[in-house]
Write a structure and sequence with these properties.
The structure holds two protein chains of two kinds.
Chain A (H helix, E strand, L loop, with lengths): L1 H11 L10 H11 L5 H10 L1 H11 L13 H8 L1 H17 L4 H20 L5 H10 L2 H9 L1 H14 L3 H9 L3 H11 L4 H8 L11 H16 L15 H6 L7 H15 L7
Chain B lengths: L1 E4 L13 E2 L5 E3 L7 H9 L4 E4 L15 H11 L7 H29 L1
Antiparallel strand pairs in B: 1-4, 2-3
Classes of the chains: A mainly alpha, B alpha+beta.
Amino acid sequence: MQDLRVDKKGQILAVKDLPTLPAVLDEVTKLIQDPSSSTEQVAALISQDQVLSAKVLKMVNSPIYGFPRRISTIQHALVLLGLNVIRGLIISTSVFDVMAKNMVGLWEHSLGCALACSSVAKKAGFKDPEEYSVAGLLHDLGKVVIALQLPEMKEEVDNLVQEKDMLYIDAENEILGFGHDRVNAWLADHWNLPKNIREGLAWHHRPRSAQLYPEMACVVHVADFLARLYETGNSGDDNVSYLRPYALDTLKLELNDLEQVMDELGEQFMELSSFRPDE
Amino acid sequence: MQKIPISLAREGMALEKPVMRDNGMVLVGEGTKLTSALISRLENMGISSIVVKGEPVDMEGVGSSTTYAKRIERLDHLFRLHENDEWMQEVKEFIRGYYQARAAAEASAMQETES
């Protein structure tokens, strides 16, 4: 069993084969590890890839961020949102690109979760809600990569969910021996994502296990619940996730505090419904 | 409130939100009643969707059941895996209460546009 798992991890992490990831991402990752690099350099690098820049700017101008004016340059986007968010946008738009056609529901769920993350983070009084929203955007990345790298297993998972009416993550664990949350952690390490975003991705189902940034995991956990409650897109489950009281406690929120969040989301989810990142 | 594609816009509908260009410039203000001339002008300007008051278009099958009355109907289904969990039942009833309040607000907003 152990060998089998290592074997699958290898298959999944052969993400170099992913036709979608632009070379720019590797270069950007390298550049930001160099302390002498500047925002201008990073912006120039991303801007070289015009298709990618257009996709990133489309996301920057989506209802998720709700800027009152159009942001038209990568440079400006970097200043407003920061490098971590822009890297997250590059990863999400690139990975979802291939899947956009047959996994459009998951894409919409991810966008919905991103919106909900920033709403929940604001309600909890955290600064930089964009950092939380990027974790929401990427929280089901593992599902996409499983579908890409192990398509026949993804089909088995889908069938099991249908047959036994069980949670998607439980079906993943039964078929694969691990869930998309585990895959998220591998991917986050692979791409050298910041620790806070890594914890949001890896522990959104089990926020209690997040040791460094529990508030990040809790925000994504609550946001995932809300996106499923409002049925924005399709996460693979046609039911709500378990809303853990621990997550609300950690964020110092009561159930009643969610009313304000839902007021906001009711409108924003609707605006999102006609947003198509790939057109 | 409902977001509809411009192709489904009809005379007499009222805007819940202003229509804006990409750069944020307001073309038509909130509350404006649509006329057929206005609709075709918006179409010509490449506006693809608008947000109108009430719920004038039956979007069933277009994948957006946005009314709160419909959301209430979905609650039992969405919480079906947590039927025996006391806390999740509490969460469900809290959401139901919230939806009911919103549904009532929606209904009264709808009457206002009709009168």
